[in-house]
Amino acid sequence: MVSAQKFRPFSERDVAIAQKIMDVAVLLLTARLAFTMGPSIMLLVHAGPALLLQELGHMFATILLALPLAVLLRMGPATIGATFSIDREGSFAMVSERYGSGSPQYQGVLTMYIFGTLFGTILVGLIASVTSQLHIFNPLVLAMGAGVGSGSMMAAATGAITAEHPDMANEVLAMAATSNVITGLIGVYVGVYVALPLAQKLYNMLAHDNVRPISKEVAASPSATAEKVSASSVSLPTWAIFIILVVIGIPITAIATKSFTYQLVIGYLLVAGLAAAGMALSKLTRAKVPAMVMIVTLGVIISSPISPIAKWVTAMTTPVDFLSICTVVLSIAGLTVGTKLSLLKGLGWKIIPVGLVSVAASYLLSVCVAELALGLWS
């Protein structure tokens, strides 16, 4: 609403500044996720092949089924962002770093994220309920599929499964939680190095005859002219962006958690420091290794059981509420899309069938892969 209002319309420079802040904010979110992954790293060692292979179902389902549908509906380049995964929090950083926060691909991520937030939990819960009652799949396999990377979707699915199989409630909850953590751990690397490039190639292959020139109305809209000022052309130092995000983020987290402690301040500084270190190391590789990958790798190592400071890091970063950082990121995202409402309206109803196929296929195909792997392993 703020960026779309007509009283004082956002200028091209305003949008470019918001985009530049957004590019750093999503890395802050990634850093917080990395500190969550570290303590659970041993789950990868103990996980069976079914738990690891089900990640293939999450990845290929959206790309092989939802992407062609999006191309058929002529969603344009937003197709890539909307269908390379079911687009939860980590997807913002993956697409922002590769295409920029002002790109159509990024708008696809944002649109799919909104769809998943509004309807994903209901859809996954419904599918899990139906498949549980059919007794076709092992309940533990259904629990594995519930680990799509979203806590709310996982909760909805496990609730439906345990309602049908109350005698296996503890096993189902443990399996779903483990699967969700594994999806978060390896999903970053799969998304950056496999899913996004694969989605790009498949889109280029399928969409070359379906790309339509944008209309004169869209070309003349503020969203089109705003692209003339890129985030890279704005002289806002990265260190200043970090200060802005920390100064804004700490009070928001304190309000969200209803507490303000020195651990919260130190934890937020650790999160910001990890994000800054990841960006610096990525520059040393001339961006051949994305900052997101650097951040996750460093964060996991620092907070994993092999690190001598793991317990201290975990104690300091635990008060930094993950959802409070999401609030900051999504608020900034809102400032970047107000002038692009015409492009978002162009997606309109199309995201509904694409989103339904993406979420449903991600869950069901991962369940099928896990069932097959579990059968072969047994």
Automatic annotation (TrEMBL):
The UniProt record lists the keyword Ribonucleoprotein: no
TM region(s), chain numbering: 33-53, 60-86, 106-128, 140-161, 173-196, 236-256, 262-282, 289-310, 322-339, 351-377
InterPro entries linked: DUF3100 (IPR021450)
Keywords noted in UniProt: Membrane, Transmembrane, Transmembrane helix
Keyword Transferase applies: no
One family name in Pfam for this protein: DUF3100
Name of this chain's protein: Membrane protein
Native organism: Bifidobacterium subtile
Origin organism lineage: Bacteria, Bacillati, Actinomycetota, Actinomycetes, Bifidobacteriales
